[in-house]
Amino acid sequence: MSKKGVIYLFISFLSLSLFSINAQKSQVKKQPLATVLNILEKRYDISFSYADETIKDLNILLPPSNLTLSEALNILKEATLLEFDLLDERFVVIKTTKEESDNTSNIQTLNEIIITSYLIPGISRSNDGTITIKSDKLGILPGLIEADVLQTIQAIPGVLSIDERVSNINVRGGTHDQNLILWDGIKMYQSGHFFGLISAFNPYVTKQVNVSKNGTPSKYGDGISSVIDMQLSNTVDNEFKAGFGFNLINIDGYSTIPLSKLTELQISARRSVTDFITTPTYDQYFKRIFQDSDISNNQDTSNNTISKNERFYFYDVSAKLLYDVSKKDKLRLSFLNIYNTLNYEEQSTINNINEALNSKLIQRNIAAGIEYNRDWNNKLVTKAQFFLSNYGLDATNFDIINDQRLIQENEVYDGSFKLDINYKLNRIFSINSGYQFSEVGISNLEEVNNPDFKRYIKEVIRSHSVYVEGDFISKNIHTNLKIGARINYINKFSKLNVEPRLSFSQRLFNHLRMEVLAEFKSQTSSQIIDLQNDFLGVEKRRWVLSNDSDIPILKSKQLSFGMHYNKNKLLISAEAYLKKVDGITTRSQGFQNQYQFVNAIGSYQVKGIDFLINKQFNTISTWLSYSFSKNDYTFNTLNNGIPFPNNADIRHAATFAGTYSLNNLKFAIGFNWHSGKPTTVPQQNNSILNSSINYTDPNSDNLSDYLRTDFSVTYGFKISNNIKTSIGASVWNVFNKKNIINTYYTIDSNEIINKVEIQSLGITPNVSFRVYF
Question: What are phi and psi of 477, to 5 degrees?
Answer without folding.
Answer: 65, 15
